[in-house]
Design brief:
With 249 residues, the protein is mainly alpha-helical. It folds into two domains: 91 residues, no CATH class; 156 residues. 68% of the residues lie in helices and 0% in strands. The protein has ten helices and no strands.
Length: 249
C-alpha cells in the first residue's frame, strides 16, 4: 500500500513537471496563467487535470476542441511515480530518498527539455548544484567532501572536453549546459555519478546514433547529450552497490 500511495503522489508531482517542461523553455510563468489547451486556448478544468485518469477519460483529446494531447503527459506522470517508488525502495524513509527523488525528477525534466529544445536551463542546474552541496552534511550516503569533489570532477572533466572541441577541433562537442549538468550530478552523487554519467551516457548515446551513422555514413548531425548523461547517471546510481561490491570497495 505504501508503494501505491507513493506512486500516486509521484504522478501528482509529474503533472507539475509537465508544466515545467512546457513553460520553462518558453519563458512563461509556472504559476500564471492557469493551464489551457495549446490548440484552442480553453482553460483546463480541475477534473480534466487529474494525473493519468483525466488522460484516459478524455482518450487523449481536449474536451473542447478535440485536439490530441501528447502522450508525453501521462508518460511523465508515470515516470515520476516510478521514480518515487524506486527511490523509496532503494533508500527508505530517509533524507536520501527525498534528495534522490528530486534529483531524478530534475534529470527527467532536463532530459525532455534538452530533447525538444537542445538546452539545459540554468534555472534547474545551478540551484541543483547549490542544493546538492548544501544538503550533503545531512545525508547518510554522501559526505560534504564527496559532494564537493564530485562537483569539481564533473565541472573539470566536462569543461576540458568542451574546450578541446571548441579550441582544437573548432566545433562544439559538448555544450556548457552539459558542463553544468555534470557539476549538478557530481554535487548530488559524488565522483561515481559523474563517471557513470560519462561512461554509460556515452555508451547509450552511441547505441542511439549507431543506426543513423550506418545509414548516412557521416558525423554531420547533432544530438542532445543531456538525456544520455542523465540516463547513465540514473542507471549507475541504482546499481552502485553491486558495482562497488564487484570492485571490492
Amino acid at each position: 500500500m505504501e508503494y501505491v500511495l507513493l506512486f500516486i503522489l509521484g504522478t501528482v508531482f509529474g503533472s507539475f513537471y509537465n508544466v515545467v517542461i512546457y513553460r520553462l523553455p518558453r519563458n512563461v510563468s509556472l504559476l500564471n496563467p492557469p493551464s489551457s489547451c495549446p490548440s484552442c486556448g480553453s482553460r483546463i478544468r480541475w477534473f480534466d487535470n487529474i494525473p493519468l485518469i483525466s488522460y484516459l477519460v478524455l482518450r487523449g483529446r481536449c474536451r473542447t476542441c478535440g485536439a490530441r494531447i501528447s502522450v508525453q503527459y501521462p508518460l511523465v506522470e508515470i515516470a515520476s511515480g516510478v521514480l518515487m517508488v524506486l527511490s523509496y525502495a532503494r533508500w527508505g524513509s530517509s533524507l536520501d530518498f527525498a534528495v534522490y527523488y528530486l534529483f531524478f525528477s530534475a534529470l527527467l525534466v532536463l532530459s525532455l527539455i534538452d530533447l525538444w529544445w537542445f538546452i539545459l536551463p540554468d534555472r534547474i542546474t545551478i540551484p541543483g548544484i547549490v542544493l546538492g552541496l548544501l544538503v550533503s552534511p545531512f545525508r547518510e550516503t554522501l559526505t560534504p567532501l564527496e559532494s564537493l569533489v564530485g562537483f569539481g570532477v564533473g565541472i573539470l572533466i566536462s569543461l576540458g572536453i568542451y574546450l578541446y572541441y571548441v579550441r582544437i577541433r573548432r566545433m562544439e562537442g559538448l555544450g556548457l549546459g552539459d558542463v553544468k549538468l555534470l557539476g549538478f550530478i557530481g554535487s548530488v552523487t559524488g565522483p561515481y555519478g559523474v563517471l557513470s554519467a560519462l561512461f554509460l551516457g556515452s555508451l547509450f548515446g552511441l547505441l542511439w546514433v549507431l543506426p543513423t551513422l550506418l545509414r548516412n555514413r557521416n558525423l554531420q548531425f547533432a544530438i542532445p547529450f543531456g538525456p544520455f548523461l542523465s540516463l547513465g547517471c540514473f542507471v549507475g546510481v541504482l546499481v552502485e552497490d553491486r558495482v562497488m561490491g564487484f570492485l571490492g570497495l
